[in-house]
Every structure is written in structure tokens, then in C-alpha cells.
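Hi everyone,

Forwarding the result from last night's run.
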Amino acid sequence: MNSGILTPQSVRLAFLVVLTLLTSQCSQRETPSPAKPEHSDIQVNVNPSGQLIVTTSAAEFHVLPSGYIQAFLLKGGAKLTLDDQRPSTTHHADYLVTDGKPTEFTPDFSKVRVLDAQGKLGRGKRVEIPANIQAGSSQVQQTLLLEAYDDLPNVVLVSAQVQNTGGSDLKIDQMVLQSHLLDASTFQTKVPSYDMWSFHGSSEDWGKNDVIKLSKGFSQENVMGGILKGGYGGGIPVVAFWTANVGEAIGHIETLPLTLSLPVKVEKNGEVAASVTIPANTTLKPHESYSTPRTFLAAFLQKEGWTLPKPSSEAYNVSWCGWGYEFNVTPAQMIGTIPKLKEFGIKWATLDDRWFDTYGDWHPRSETFPGDSIKKMVQDFHKQGELVQLWWLPLGVEDGQGRWESHKYLVSKVVQEHPDWLILDKNGKHARMTRDLAALDPSLPEVQAYYKSLTEKFIRDWDFDGSKLDNIYTVPACYNPAHHHKSPQDSVNAMGEVYKTIFQTTRAIKPESVTQACPCGTPPSLAWLPFIDQAVTADPVGAVQVRRRIKMYKALLGPEAAVYGDHVELSEMTRVGNSWDEHGTDFASTIGTGGVVGTKFVWPDSNPKFKRVALTPEKDQHWKKWIGIYNDKMLSKGTFRDLYVYGYDTPEGYAIEKDGKMYYAFFSPDPAKTWKGKVELRGLSSGTYHVLDYGDGTDLGTISSDGSKAPQLAAEFRGHLLIEVSK
């Protein structure tokens, strides 16, 4: 786990600088001997009677007598924090739950060891803080381990080792770690303690907001890793909080989708409680240990072996999706769109859901794609210089139980031939994943080989140029005795191996292919995030979610990541009964934030069923204009600059740097109303600049910057303002 303090200007740091916490992957291990390091500038001051302070070049971390860790940002001679600042606080940061009762640890600062640390994260300091407690009839010893590194001055890494030093068994139900109380009123008067914005990385439900302004009574469990109701699950195991002045985040980031929760609750007194809860469910015999692996967050993942691939150059091209025709699209409807794709400058076409017979087998559906029509369709697109992507859903299989809105489930051939590949639940039944499908166990080499052969069929034999992997969340824990798992979690942890197989196989056949993964309506999962070319805003409910999710992915994957803004039709949606009426036309929310433009218009088909997404003459001109702007600027290939604070800068602002120019996008609080005022053009060096509204071509004159203070520009706009600034 780790502890982090961040500036609000960097939502990226909400992911990079977190309290990365311990996981349910406990192990029996020896304490590693630290390597002999170079000199570190980090200072560790220990008061044997009751406090320890770790000081880096950017932050201080105070370990109080209760074990509570306060994180301070050092800025302009001040110490800024969201942590509870009551000097007499007795709030314990970590504790065991045994037989339903909490057992708290209290540090013994008289026995602290401070060691040099050196490794992939560079040079730093390692601090070992012992604690002893009585848990029923058992004696328990804990060692809290803190690590701070010069190259990561906003972060302290924290892990723990718990040993049963008594003579009887110790049952651990849960471990609660890094329990924090946050208070926005510490440095702001006359505001409630909960007056802050937050990010919640859990994949809990379709369309649920992950960026939330906290309010009285707010509570969210934020379960990570494991499967949830409806087949959701996985997620980015981070919760982050920020005000206009300072921010803080807690979480864990392993390269595995570990099962735990990051509960957030606004208490009765208004303070925000956040922690990590690990469902340990383990029993330690005398002298056995429960150890937490040191975990990492995005900034260190590459140093620790998580190498993110550079997106294919084709991942930045505009995409059209056949989903406008819904489940029963035909080759003729797909091919009929080609003239309009070429006219608009759209490079990609996606064959979407229900082209297949059964989940798991993935043979062309005879009613709509008879014979070899799917291969001929791909050939027709290629002859016109278009690329084609295929929709599919790995690991889900039909077992004759249940149905989806498209069809009643059969028993897929792969299930008939390999029933031993299935994930079983605790009761020995077929476990269910998204769409109420049965699931193959990704930890089995045979299953990984099966998906390699499927990928070869799609990309090599059928000649598709990439995959749209959809409804991607997580898989259930596996209790199949035939799989000989060390833990039921093995299936969940291995999910990424199948996505790695798909990605690498596709790249080997077609280096300029695009593998896209869509966790419909939710944040992604770390399990498969390293194995894609293109992220997706994933069924955003309106333009606000489009912008927020593009910013999230730029933080996670890097400032030049290819992030598909999804179908522009989703940028404005109206609830109609149990479904949504999608009628959006807001290209600016994708273009201005550095996303990749997409659409699902229907043309030339005039079937009234597709009226809402039909390409009318009015839409035709609008689509042509904005796709032209996108292809001309290609801001998705620029560098996303994290210069504006979401929730505190008005109007909502974004900045992209590309080819020596700065591009700004501002969005009014109410898209239906005109906003008037001054906008700050941040990130400019000294000089005189020409300003252009590239959305409508209006020359806005010149501005000057002294390089120290952002120049302001008087503006009046409705909905959005897109600005190009050049010398």
C-alpha cells in the first residue's frame, strides 16, 4: 500500500500518487534484505515517545501514536492536507477484525528501524515500525513498513506483516488498513468537511458516475476485483479526493485485479471516512504470518514490469460502428455505408454485436452472414481502403441457461466438448459473468490456447484488422476442483492472460491492428488495461462523462493515449422507460479533450426503426464539418496537459499541446446557456500568441504571456469554446 498527497491540478496524480494498500493476495514470505543504496535525500525523524515524520522534497508523512498517517503537501512554505488535523486524534489507521470484533495496532516508536532502500523505484528510505497487540487468546505482532523514494516525492509506500506469536490459532476475518478521516474545512472556512470532489474507480453499475462531488449522507462500498451483481466488477482500485488547494488518494494497484473494497462514507459530523478493507478469511497457526505484497500505482507500474504498449497509429483514426443497425445488421447494410465513410474521411468500420451464432464458438450467424459472406464483406471494405474491426466477448460461453435480449442461449460447442474448462461456483454450478453467461477459466493453458486460435481465425483467416472486445469486466472466482487452484481468486487474477494472448496474437499478424476494450458504462480493470491499443469511454451517459473518462484514461495510460470517445450519438441521451434515446451531436467534447471521434449513423437505409440515428441532410453537414476538424487537427495524437482542476475551474477546461501549439477547450456549466467571462490560457511560455477559435474559424486576435502568470481571454460562448494558440 502507499500513501500520497497531490496537487488538485493533477487528476493524473489521483492515480499516480495514492495510498496503495494491501491486497487479499496474502503470502508467507521472508522480509527482503534491502540492497545497498546510494545516498537518499529523504529525512526520517523519530520521536520515541510518539511520532514519526518522513520528509521528501514535496511532502511530509506523519505517523501518529495511533498509527494514523497524515499526508502533507509542501507548497509555498505551507503544509496542505485533507487529513484530520486534530492533534489528539486516536483514530487508528489499521486493524484486524477477528470474530467480528476489531483489534487495533499501536506503533512502538522506540523500536523503529530506518534503512536505506534501493531498487527499481530508485533510492530512498525504508522504515519498519513494530506493534504488538492481544487478539483474544492470541498474541499478534505487526510490522508496518514504509518506503519513500526520492523520485516519487509525493508518495510513501506502505505494507504490513502480521505474525501470530501466540500459542493458539488466530482467525482473521478482515484487515482494515489506511483508514482516513478527511476534512475540507481544515484550510477553507465556512464549508462542510465533505465539500470536495472525488473519484471512485469501482466497476459497480452501468452509467454510474465515477467523478462525484460528495454530499451529506454519501456512502459507497467500492468493491474491486471480484464479480458483482449483473456481471460488473474489476475496476481501477483507487479512490481520490480533491479541493481547489490539495488532494489525496488511497487504493492499491497491482497488475492483478485483487479483490478488496475501498469504502467511502460521509460521517454524521461531515468528515469523509475512507479506507481499504481486505476480506482475509484466513487462519494463522502459531508463528505463521499474513504478509501484504508491496503494491504500486500507475507512476511506478512501468518500473515494476507493467509495460504499456504504444498504440497502433491506426488507433487514432475515426471509426464508424454498425451498431446503429443493432443486432440484425447485414453485410449489405455494412458495405452500403462505405461511400459515406470515404466522403467523411472515416477510416474504420466495426461489425458489432450478434453477427455470431453462440457466445464461445463465434461462428457467423447463418441468418445474417451465410456462407463466407463475412470474409467477402471484409474484402469489400479493404478494396475501398477501409479497415474493419470485429466485436466479440472473450471468456463468456453459452451453456443452455438463460438468455440475452438478442436470443435465448443454446449450449455452445466449446462447452459440449470441454465442460472441464468452465468456472464453477461454491455450489459446483456454472458460475455466471456478464450477460448471465457461463465462463471459461482464463488460468487454464488450454483456454488461453483456444483464444489464440480464435484470434488467428478472426485476424488472419477472416482478415479483420482488429477487435472490439465489449462488456469486459471481470470473471467469477473458480471453485472447480479439477483446476487445482491454490485460491479461487486464481481465475480472476489470470483474466489478463487471455487479453494478453489476444493482443499479442493480433499484433503479430497485423502490426498496425487495433485492439479495443470496452467496460460498458464503468471504469476499466487493471487485468486487461495493458493489452489494448485503444481505450473507450464505454457507453458514456452524455458529454460530461465523455470528457471525464477521456481525462481518466489519459491519466492511466499516458498523455498521448488513444481514447475512443465512443459514438457521438451518446453525447446527449434522454431516458425513455427502461432504455435511452441517443441523439447527441457533441463532437467538441471528444475533440477538445484529445479523444478519438466515433459515430454509428445509419445511411442510406431509411427504415423508420433507425430514425434517431439516421444521417439526415442536416446531420450530414454537421458530421462532415466536425470529422473534418478532427482529421485536420488530430489532437488525439497531441499531449494532454493536466492544467485545470475539475470541479473548481469554471468554465471546465482542457489543454492539448501539439506541433508547437496549444489547444484549449472550455465547456459551459449549462450547455444550453451562454457563459460569459474570462478564461485562463495556462501552460504558455513567454511571448505573443495568435488566438483562433478553431471550432468556427473566428480570429480572436493576440495575447501576451510573461511565462509566469496565465494570460486571460475575454470569452462569451454557448456549450463549448475551442481555441488554437500559436506564436
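The radius of gyration is 27 Å.

Cheers,
N.
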